[in-house]
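Can you make up a polypeptide sequence alongside its tokenized fold?
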Amino acid sequence: MTTRSAALASRLDLNADVGELLDQSPLDGDAAIMAQVSSVNIACGFHAGGPSTMRRSCATAAAAGVVIGAHPSYRDMAGFGRRFMDVDPDELTQELVYQIGALQAMARAEGATVRYIKPHGALYNAIVHHSAQAQAVVSAVLAVDPGLAILVAPQSQVQLLGEASGLTVVTEAFADRAYNPDGTLVSRTQRGAVLHSIDAVVAQSLDIALRQEVTAVDGSRVKLTTRSLCLHGDTPGAVDMARAVRAALSNAGVEIGSFA
């Protein structure tokens, strides 16, 4: 390891979205991803998964020794939670409480606990700017357990509101998503929004871990302050990506460990 790498080495959480399968589907891919990461965001049934998948995901995570987070979303199974929904904030809060509580019960049944929440998909993106929905997320966490951390995008409304409410807020960046010059994610409706090359994913991961920066789609450099790095478990080749990212970070002197 070079002197420069040693100087920049840090501790970083590596998280992945899991449990995004039908109840009858095997979890082999998720188990392989869990072997590489430190935290997992388990779908809570509103965009993917269901009771059986949720409980088996918790059991697999507990066996792997990774930290469990709830991954709630809009009520949008048909759209995989990737369509913005203009939900009444109070209704959204109750739906989030419901989802988090359901995963807590499944985790408890497997001798594990939920330590944080990370909103999914369109909800995650909406609460970057949508103050009312951001407050709905914060209100849900306060109602369920103020000790839960929230994993969110940096410089977002939910970050500001969560910190103002006394919650533990952790910001993250994405290994496998393209960035706009303002630090937001490129919409999945745009070509190139998801990085599919392992080399590109590894390069972006090292940029984030060692320099807290990414290269935006216009070539500009964007500063990202983050304690967690996300890989999407539903991306084709996700297991190989996770292995490659973990190896590259370890070789660069980055310690992998959950924030929770």
Notes: Residues 3-256 form a domain with the TIM Barrel fold (CATH 3.20.20.370).
